[in-house]
Fold these 2 entries.
Entry 1:
Amino acid sequence: MSWNQDLFKRTLDFAAKVHGAQQVPGSGAPYVVHLVKVATEVLRAADGSFDVDFAMQCALLHDCVEDAGVKVETLHLEFGSRVANGVHALTKDDAVSKPERMADSLRRIRAQPREVWLVKLADRITNLEPAPAHWAAEKRAAYRAEAQVIADALGEAHAGLAARIREKIAAYA
Ligand code: NI
């Protein structure tokens, strides 16, 4: 599987810069660790059926609007409209009420190319690492249930990632 390492590095540099000193909640690792984990899930799934460079760019940038305050217009200028639209769809809309937010988010992702679906699956696979110790059982159960909603809504995009998220959901206690 060939992929564009120079494009990956340019996107990674941008993501590392805009996330700055932000840390992965719970682990204290630099935030870029989360982004690279999501990108490697996508890379591992690469089978020639999707544009792995586009998918990895969306993986590296998927939280930069929501968590680092980057403007979608900036992504248009830096990386083009396909990436900007994908990342925009991967950004939760605070204007939508909290109970509706996930459904709204999944609707907007499903309107995007399949690569964007893969990133959402890869993000949740990555986040189904053992829950932070301070999370109550109820919060873990809700997170697990939400992961199942994501798997059901987007799993058809890639059989390998669908299998992997199911495994992670089963193992998540
Ligand atoms: Ni994420």
Note: The pocket of nickel (II) ion is lined by residues 34, 62-63, 123 (CB under 6 Å).
Entry 2:
Amino acid sequence: MKRTHYSTQITPGMDKGTVTITGWVHEIRDLGGIAFLVVRDREGLAQVTLFKKAMEQEVLDTVKGLSRESVVSVTGTIQKMAQAPNGYEVIPKGITVLSHAASPLPMDTTGKVDADLDTRLDARFMDTRRPRTQAIFRIRHIVLRCIREFLSKDGFVEITTPKVVATATEGGTALFPITYFEREAFLNQSPQLFKQLMMSGGLDRVYEIAPIFRAEEHDTRRHLNEASSIDIEASFIDQKDVMAILENLVNHVYNEVAEIGAKYLETLGVELEIPELPFKRITYDKAINIAGANGEDLEWGDDLSTEAEHIIGKNVGEHYFIVDWPTKIKPFYAMPYEDKPELCKAFDMMHPRMELSSGAQRVHNYDLLKTRIEEQGLNPDGFEFYLNAFRYGMPPHSGWGLGTERLLMTMLGIENIREVVLFPRDRRRLSP
Ligand code: AMO
């Protein structure tokens, strides 16, 4: 039962050797005197060939009763076979059925029959057996691992902050209320306030990769109600410095995926275009002018509509930053320019298809921060735990949040954000 090799670790050079492979029954083809049992594991396929005359009856009976997607363990001898997957076949000595799969199956795993996304998400445990879906999640793993490595190397300390909180961070509308003993609490929209607290806390450079919850009603292909955010915060540096970290990180991730994830990109039929450094910078003013010149009129101070994002994205044609936003449409923690307070030191980082990240240099002055909270129509009393940290020595600091799913879906040319989350949470979906 214990696996000695994944299917792809076996090579034709291991001819005559004995191995044990484990996995799911991908296919059984009975051609009379000979039968093929194709076993699929995480890495690929292995062909088990049964010459009926030479086989013990017990082994033949086991195979006869097998349903597709049952879990088996096969011990046998390797034989070179150019036509078989990976150039070898396994001549079985023993086959054990570890788990029997009922039929009909909730969906097809061979790629021969297309299932719609809802069916696949309902049967996600089966969907992830498909090489295509697996490739997405293997790339997701590579992306997150290399982001952790990149930030750790750059002196960032990984932190974990609470997801059950008492206050809104990104404005009060998109909160999920929950019951917390005898009080009302909320699911956190962003680690924003906590990562800033740790700048006063002296950690200097922090990052977190964790869920954020947004009670947005949108039912779109790029919004989730639970997303995974990559957040950084760093002291004694400004917005331009953290923009440089962000573009270098994105470029690095693409390069790593192109190299380490080549096999999965091939499965997905994706040819990665590595975004070139440095990313273009355009001001908010220029952005709305581009939108206006192409039929999407916006007033100065309007947020960018989805249509405007598409027009500007098409116009620029590659990853880019939008900088110098109107202060009134950015959160209270974004630092206004000293000489032009109607503009702030906030930025968005865009893929031509959508926003991937936003960030800013933060307000680190207590009085200004309190005023900004009030100006945004929020009550500073609710922010006491946060504001306090600004009274006892808060360094200047900057940071950003980058959506894991949006980074992945734009990288892989995937249309629907739900494809890149194992168990998406949206307006309609709460299970599995
Ligand atoms: P913001 O709200 O722009 O900024 O979020 C940062 C990034 O997180 C991703 N994101 C989402 N992805 C999918 N579905 C959603 N509903 C969703 N909401 C956000 C996006 C977005 O660009 N505190 C600031 C960051 C900072 O200033 O450090 C914040 O949360 O990719």
Note: The chain has a mean pLDDT of 96.
